[in-house]
Amino acid sequence: MATGAASNATSASNAVNNLFDDLLLFLNMYKFAPASENEPIVFGSARPGYGTEQVDKWIEFMQNQNIQHI
Length: 70
Description:
Blueprint: H1 2-30, E1 33-34, E2 43-44, H2 52-64
Antiparallel strand pairs: 1-2
């Protein structure tokens, strides 16, 4: 039983790490960051590509960050 619990904990930890890695990839891809270290409102980002799919993914990313105005 303990082995199963350890395995589940490892699986959960791996899932969290993978999610964090994916988030870092997105943040890096769009260069999304606050304007300064202590800025809670103003953020900057790289523009999306020119294709419709690229723009749609960029918009989805911004919406998932709770961005309300650009």
